[in-house]
Amino acid sequence: MFLYRLYFARCSPRWENKGVAFLFDEKEENPEYYSVIRLWKITEEQFYEIQRQEGGWYNLILELVEKDGIEIKTITGRWRDKKQAPSEEYLEVIKKGLKETTNWDDERIEAYVKKFM
Questions:
Q1: What 3-state class would DSSP assign to 94?
Q2: SS3 (DSSP) at 19
Q3: How far is CA 70 from the centre of its chain?
Q4: HSE toward the beta carbon, residue 114, CA cutoff 13 A
């Protein structure tokens, strides 16, 4: 779990003109709203290429933590004023990822996702 709250914003043509996931750029005080984040070990060059490909929506880099000498960071954006619910298809991708990375049962995954809606 990471100390940042998940939210959905903007309108992505790829996802039925519905919201996509972002993290608040301020640390969350309530542990109930900490986020599960899937980690991928990539080079710094790959990280910036992903950010470039995502365009201006993900224009903020969050340095989350350092673990075993590796800096863990992600990209997000400041779109709190453009909150938008995600599509069911988008949520299914998130739920599938949670199932693969946490081994939570479906009920726990549903509860986790629901609290960020």
A1: helix
A2: strand
A3: 20
A4: 6
**Overall pTM > 0.70:** yes
Cα torsion angle, 41, 113, 35, 108, sign: negative
Encoded amino acid at 98, one letter: L
Largest separation between any pair of C-alpha atoms in the chain: 40
Q: How many structural domains compose the chain?
A: 1
Q: What tens digit of pLDDT does each residue of 54-109 get?
A: 989 999 999 999 989 999 999 999 999 999 999 999 999 999 999 999 999 999 99
In terms of residues, how long is the chain? 117
Q: Domain containing 50: what range?
A: 4-114
